[in-house]
Amino acid sequence: LKFVCYSNDGVDDHMMCLIGLKNIFARQLPNMPKEYIVRLLMDRKHKSVMVLRKNEVEGGIPLVVGGITYRPYHRQRFGEIAFCAISADEQVKGYGTRLMNHLKEHARDVDGLTHFLTYADNNAVGYFLKQSFTKEIYLEKDVWHGYIKDYDGVLLMECRIDPKLKYTN
Ligand code: ACO
User: Fold this and answer.
1) Which residues of the chain are under the pLDDT cut of 70?
2) What is the ipTM metric for this complex?
3) Which residue among 38, 39, 118, 167 has the highest number of C-beta atoms inside a 10 angstrom radius?
4) 51 CB less than 6 Å from ligand 1?
5) 93 occurs within a structural domain
């Protein structure tokens, strides 16, 4: 397995990975309009941390196992997770946890972030709780209010990134 972080930078290989991730999001997040998924994935302010099968391709597209798309707000030092999914046949094998750990380390060490916020689907709240997200929001509201969009039927959750912890090995 290989963990990478790509955004829409015009590099062919990165674009193919983003397409592979788009296909996973489209299947695993059926309530999200496909156009919306594509728009955020291709938005240059968003980044995607992905888990790939090393050197494997399928129809020219690198074999993407899953990923998390987020937008860093550098000045406010938090990131909003927009989408998170692992492909159906690879779920509950621990990849979702490893992916989140890579995201936290990347966001802290590369983007300088201290927190994540996400609107969790009801069925994913358990997963986020296991990744140290809380239902309580400790960040001051004026830090994030007006930056992240409001959704219905989903729960806002927060995670503090440990400033020193080594999340990956
Ligand atoms: N509800 C409760 N607990 C869960 C869930 C869930 N939906 N999914 C995983 N867990 C638990 C696992 O049992 C495991 O617990 P353990 O450590 O005690 O064994 C722990 O969370 C981590 O499991 P992983 O195997 O690392 O998780 P996985 O690789 O399956 O990835 C994910 C989790 C991303 C939620 C995946 O199941 C998935 O893609 N689901 C469908 C799409 C989805 O719901 N995405 C989130 C939507 S919200 C958003 O995108 C902002």
Assistant:
1) 150-151
2) 0.93
3) 118
4) no
5) yes
